[in-house]
Amino acid sequence: NTEICFFFFGHVTQPSVHILGNKAHSVTIVAKATCLVMTLKCSIQPNNSPKLMDLLDDTVPGIGTYEDFNTIDWVREKSKDRDRHREIANKSKQSTVALLFSISDAFSGWLLMLLIGLMSGALAGGIDIAAHWMTDLKEGVCLNGFWFNHEHCCWASNETTFQERDKCPQWKSWAELMVGVSEGPGLYVVNYFMYVCWALLFAFLAVILVRAFAPYACGSGIPEIKTILSGFIIRGYLGKWTLIIKTITLVLAVSSGLSLGKEGPLVHVACCCANILCHFFTKYRRNEAKKREVLSAASAVGVSVAFGAPIGGVLFSLEEVSYYFPLKTLWRSFFAALVAAFTLRSINPFGNSRLVLFYVEFHTPWHLLELIPFVLLGIFGGLWGAFFIRANIAWCRLRKNTSLGHYPVLEVVVVTLLTALLAFPIEYTKMSSSELISELFNDCGLLDSSKLCDYSGNSGGTSGSVNATAANGLGARLAGPGLYTAMWQLALALVLKMVFTVVTFGMKVPSGLFIPSMAVGAIAGRLLGVCMEQLAIRHHERDIFRGWCSPGADCITPGLYAMVGAAACLGGVTRMTVSLVVIMFELTGGLEYIVPLMAAAMTSKWVADALGRESIYEAHIRLNGYPFLEAKEEFRHKTLATDVMRPRRGDPPVSVLTESGMTVEEVERLIADTTYSGFPVVISQQSPRLVGFVLRRDLVISLENARRHQEGVVSMSPILFTECDPPMSPSAPPAVKLRSILDLSPFTVTVHTAMEIVVDIFRKLGLRQCLVIQNGRLLGIITKKDILKHMAQMANRDPDSILFN
Predict the structure, then answer these.
(1) Assign residue 766 a region: left if phi > 0, alpha if psi is -120 to 50, beta otherwise?
(2) What is the C-alpha separation between 572 and 385, in angstroms, rounded?
(3) Which residues cross the membrane (predicted)?
(4) Alpha carbon distances (Å) from 490 to 440, 449, 528, 530
């Protein structure tokens, strides 16, 4: 056998990142000169001579996929999608069948959005109905049908009055059913006992189901979804068992009376629906980047069905959750949110043709000087947000680092017991948080029997000011005894809500934060609104209040203050601004109140940011050590790539593969001895000039596939990443050719590249790793984990808090 190989050395351009000075403000993609070996091969081989096998001539199952707790390669995924589109477009010109396939492929994204909207809307409607029914089940049962909640049970009754609209013969409390008493201390004691027992049962079932079947179903889910959308892989977090258990336990947790909401977990539920439905569409099943576009749209769907706010949901996904949000995703998010809202409206879970329980409409205009109390509510919301984040993170860290975290069931039961014991005696903590917000948002009318609407002109005292007020026809808005009782009960409820929300969020049950935060703000806003109303009525002759009050009209709308306070507190905790204002606008349907909402939301964000830059979701991401590069956080330190790259001084050299000269046994030993996610490929150990980069998972799968399907592969078979086929003797074992899994254009920087540029590259391109070179020689590697550790170290935090690869 004779083989003649002629080697020609040329040059090919290869994408590489080159920084034009340490103070450069832009990244310039320049050409990197590399040596390409072009081979003209003449060979005379007998028929029985072994042939080289290219493992990707036919697609090997598993190649291009990712292991659990790893970050996807955004650049590779987008490149795969472009290649797929190009192939479909070329084939569509050749036959009618291929053209139809091209049309169906383009339509599949819209079909997927339709299915996500339908499924999420149906689940949200079921959750709303079940939670409403089980919440009322703690107080009694309907004799006409146990499946009716309190409100629906009394709808058909002819004996219901406006003053006692919640009382009807068809609805019986547990005391009336068990001991036959309808009044007296026995009624109170038995109902108290049953309320606590039902709350404990619901909470116990929720935590047991989560622990036994789906540990990922606990919490809000938004911190993890933000991390997943940034490219991180968490297997099972959006799976079918998580969806089933989260849906069931969310109903149980909300019904137990704990200080939590269902709005945040509904985002998780919608993303689970999207992930499951993606498996029916090849385009999204095989491409992690495309799947994340769908998950971004699903986040919008979750908020759409939670608040009945499709536009606010789209903006929430764009502002708060999504990492990569192209224009096409914006349109599809809007469509999916629309379908979900329409589905929920068709189900009509609350029986009032509204998508949420606390929908309100205000008609009284606000006055310019009211911006002062609105800004005060914004300050309160910012202070509450900063306090809550610090207190909740401290409590979660205590749970994580002490034996408290070893007893999640006991923790849930104890917190539920304390919540139920303290909530039952107070009217405003006994009711569900959604009902409380609805009560606080309500603008008092003639038929309202709530204590918050107990106004009386005879209770104001004997001063001349009060008498003048009554004479002017404004006495009907003076506070009565019921309103004074409601005020101190609301003040007590405010303290209890704040404390219980801090300890509840983060427990091993589904727990949202939107509704508890809104409840805190709504209570504070209603208290301030009533105070402002009484102040304006009693001093209406003063210049500052002149023109505010007129006979037969409301001076001030306390419900508007409750709504502004709810927006301020939610903004202080989540740091939402635009999406928050739009969500609240969609809840009220009034353009008139956008300015108060904007003033409160911006003030809340400014105050909260002055006390701490992180939102509650970012704080939990950092607490759990998720590899998330926050785009809002600026990197201001003057460090270079050489300060961050591995290996450091004193460390062993970086583990590399050579393009030729290594055997299967040597590569398998390197894989077994290391835990790295990939390996750089160089020309040789003596000449470490970079050739490319290969992923660990692709390498393992390729070697296993070669041993199973390529004849004659043994431990001494050579591994080749080269373009040419080197000369081999007939007796030599066949080589395994792996050039097809080699990334020939890995992103590289020089040792003098500023880290602020490197961080920007990782954020905007979604890189997993970046290789550090000098004059073409490989010196080290920088991974996403290295950057996060370096940023933590620069911020005087523990760099080992980054738990995942």
Answers:
(1) left
(2) 4
(3) 96-118, 192-217, 238-260, 266-282, 294-318, 368-389, 409-428, 486-507, 513-532
(4) 10, 17, 11, 12
User: Is residue 231 a contact partner of residue 170, using CB atoms and an 8 Å limit?
Assistant: no
Is residue 607 within 8 Å of residue 572, measured between CB atoms?
yes
Q: Which of 319, 315, 323 is nearest to 295 (CA)?
A: 323
DSSP 318: I
The residue that leads in pLDDT, 173 or 458, is 173
pLDDT at 554: 65
Please give the pLDDT value at position 153.
82
Strand ranges inside 403-496, DSSP E: none
Cα–Cα distance list, 766 to 760, 761, 783 (Å): 10, 8, 11
Query: For residues 125 and 349, is the Cβ–Cβ distance under 8 A?
Result: yes
Nearest 5°: the CA angle 283, 289, 292 is 95
Which residues contact residue 415 at a Cβ distance below 8 angstroms, ignoring those fewer than 6 apart?
258, 500, 503, 504, 507
Q: What is the pLDDT of residue 802?
A: 64
Query: What is residue 29's predicted lDDT score, i.e. its pLDDT?
Result: 34
Tokens 């789209």 belong to which residue?
314
63, exposed or middle or buried, with CB in 10 Å at 0-12, 13-18, 19+? middle
How is residue 593 annotated by DSSP? G
Given this model, what pLDDT does residue 166 score? 65
pLDDT tens string 701-737:
999 888 888 888 888 888 888 888 777 777 778 888 8
Tokens read off for 534:
């009484």
DSSP string, 2-50: -EEEEEEEEEE--EEEE-SSTT--S-EEEE--EEEEEEEEEE---TTS-
Beta bridge partners of 678: 695
Query: Residue 214, class by beta-carbon neighbours within 10 Å (0-12 exposed, 13-18 middle, 19+ buried)?
Result: buried
147: Cα separation from own chain's centroid: 33
Give the count of beta carbons closer than 10 Å to the beta carbon of residue 485. Answer: 14
Tell me the C-alpha distance between 314 and 749, whole Å.
37
For residue 401, what pLDDT band results from cuts at 50, 70 and 90? confident
Alpha-carbon torsion (636, 640, 645, 648), positive or negative: negative
